[in-house]
Amino acid sequence: MLSVERLVQSFLQFVGYRQARINRSESLASLKPVVLQLIDSFEQGGSERQAIQLTELLHDSGRFSLRLATLSPDGPLKKEIAALNLRELPSFPLNSFYDFNALRQLRRLVRYLKAARVDVLHTHDFYTNVFGMFAGALARVPVRIASRRETGGMRSASQQKAQSFAYKLAHQVLANSDAVRAQLLTEGVRTDKVTVVYNGLELNRVRPQQALTKTQCLAALGLDQNLRSRPLVTIVANMRLAVKDHSMFLSMARRVSEAVPAAAFLLAGEGDLLPSIRAQAAGLGLAANTFFIGRCDQLAELLAASDICVLTSQSEGFSNSILEYMAAARPVVATDVGGAREAVVEGETGYLVQSGDDVAMAERVVSLLRDTAKACTMGEQGYRVVKDKFSRAAQLQRTEELYDRLLTEAQAFRPQ
What we know:
The chain has helices at 4-30, 46-61, 78-82, 100-115, 126-138, 157-169, 178-186, 214-221, 246-259, 274-283, 299-305, 320-327, 358-370, 372-389, 392-413, and strands at residues 34-39, 65-70, 120-123, 143-148, 172-175, 194-196, 232-236, 264-268, 290-294, 308-311, 332-335, 350-353.
């Protein structure tokens, strides 16, 4: 029978063994560089969706110890993060860059970056660039990466100055197209400081899991079944920013309606501009032919029901909507802005027109509505382009290569 002393000794040895295992586990985890993705919110924006997708890819890769933080903890995309079981989702809410709260949140972020021993800070839009790069510099994060997703025309003079300062604090600026890279260079960012990583797309997200009829797609969207016999022209764009130029879309729709009276037009997106866009549609006599989807959670069904997809933006970096259209094997008619021509092959996967030229866009749309065989061929060509060039695997590989290179450079310059 064991003595009390032997029992105590055995227990202490066991505890010591368990603690050693815990310490070893923590030590192994600490060997992975800590990467923090800082995003604006969990809303259904293109930047947010790409940032969350990258977070998921990095999590599944397992090469880095991953963290995620946000300026606002709200939005429908938050449910996609829940499955990752991240340690925490700290938020740093801002009302302005120029009030006491901003200073308080900055101090909180700096403390968090130090406590978490973040090695790579990756921000994804204007607000997180400015806030994150300043905090990252104060916390002396070894690798700081800002992102740019638009070519220009969306920021005031003071915002442009703030963004330029953020780029100076960054070790690298990630652009999502060659067009955005060119814009950054014209703004004075050094050539060696800009890396292009194209948006990646999950093909299954925009294609139904099983073959669906147009009737089934319309039912899933809650749309009138009478639309099943009508050609459908669709735009997927938020209604928060005038730069998406829904006015051009509606002007184009009026011209198309005159040439193809059966055509109907689907507008997916939400935002403060919705009432004015509805009013303009009614003013153009399109009330009976325009259908407002709102925030679309059934994107695959929407695109499957559509015959032609368009984008009328005045400015873009690299449009997620265009990639989604092509991945759904739909012909694209889009304005020639940002990186559109890096995806759309003129005359093969769709057509490009000048921003604001609703006449040319209407002509292209009408031609495709009248030549369904050509529209189908363009759609299939577009699918192949997206599959080969804009995969999530390529996005992950380019991003991890960037992290590895910058971490190696930071280690080379770090005091021993």
